[in-house]
Amino acid sequence: MEPRCQLGHVHVFQAYVMRLKPDHGSSRGSALDRGENRRPIVTLVCSASLAGVVFLTSSAAVEPDNDAWIALGARLFSDRRLSADGNVSCATCHKPEAAYADGLSVAVGIGGHAGTRNAPSLMGVGALSVFNWDGRTHTLEEQVLQPFTTSIEHGLASRDELTQRVTEDPAYRRSFSDLAAVGTREIRSMDIATALAAFVRSLSAESSAFDRYRAGHDPDALTDSAKRGLEVFQGHAGCASCHTVGEAAAATFTDQRFHALGVGLSSVGTRLESILARIEGSPRSIGADDILSDPDIADLGRYLVTRLPEDIGRFRTPSLRNVARTAPYFHDGSVATLETAVDLELYYRRQSDGALTAVSRDEREDLLAFLRALSGL
Ligand code: HEC
Ligand code: HEC
Known about the structure:
Bound molecules: heme C
Number of strands: 2
Distance between the termini: 23 Å
Strand order of the largest sheet: 1-2
Order of helices and strands: HHHHHHHHHHEHHHHHEHH
CATH superfamily of the largest domain: Cytochrome c-like domain
Helix content: 25-40%
Strand content: under 5%
Structural class: mainly alpha
Number of helices: 17
CATH architecture of the largest domain: Orthogonal Bundle
Oligomer: single chain
Number of domains: 4
Largest sheet: 2 strands, antiparallel
């Protein structure tokens, strides 16, 4: 678990490091990308921040007016006017009542068009540093702007159109000008990103029975079954090697790395060669629009970012916070219930690591009780 100090600074600094260290030629992804060497950098940033050194760009300088930025972000988040047909907001696919997921297999955006991927819950996302199922973005500020201009999400023509729509609204103009970092200057897309990212960071996931047990030291917060489930999860079921629990109070339940379970690959299967040829032959780079509108491309996962054959079908380990509230499951939403998702995971674990001890029926029930205890209030 990364230290929580100055997380916003960490994101900005990581992005900065990534720009400094582009991965020339090898297409392996940087060391940061693979999650290596992250701890020393985070430690460095935290100690530097404590020493009063400021690494900030204007986009992350939200501290003085943080509550005002969050409130503004909340308004932008549910504003359907910021879409091509006036029907789609972030909350269309990240519904507050569904733990900021949407209950659908794959998200449905502008004009009722279905996308290719399951919308993740946004609760606790502020603690992460790689976003989307394929990890194609590395800062929350970058991530929150992306949906506005994809053709299946908000469908706007450009970021200029976004800032224009926001600026046309006198109420937004007033609220932005009240913020010290904006004042009388024009509203920029990065201001919109800052507000939305501040709002998303405020969606904490740490109010579950597990947190009362772990951080609140309340031994009665978990049932005996859930306590046994935690042991199985961290023990012989081998779940915690990817869905990290760690020693820190606030577990993220993800290692933020990429693994191939095989979900979705059967549909790509025999056509893989022609799909890869199509991508390689494409005159332009593959972006969010292609990923969200073409299921064949979407199923390639991490490969889309690194272009390494071994990354075909690898996806970021999802956090399991609120998992009982975010059915259906997996990157393509292909599994309807938590029970089946867990059964599949148990199957995959046995396939990939024959040394694992089998999980009994009772232990499976305990695992489920534990996963249900990860839902917030
Ligand atoms: C049409 C549905 C839809 C809309 C509208 C939408 N999202 Fe998403 N969002 C998704 C899907 C699907 C993903 C995962 C995409 C992927 O992995 O390629 C996602 C991913 C994210 C992530 C990354 C989460 C993670 O776990 O990595 C964030 C943050 C996010 N969206 C915020 C927003 C914000 C802010 C808005 C509004 C500006 C928004 N989304 C609009 C469907 C949507
Ligand atoms: C090797 C790493 C790894 C291990 C070990 C692992 N998982 Fe996962 N888990 C993943 C990845 C990656 C996904 C997403 C795969 C996809 O969508 O294609 C996932 C998805 C899930 C999901 C669906 C979550 C969602 O929001 O869609 C559940 C539930 C889950 N895992 C539970 C478990 C349990 C229980 C165990 C132990 C039996 C376990 N996992 C072990 C990597 C792992």
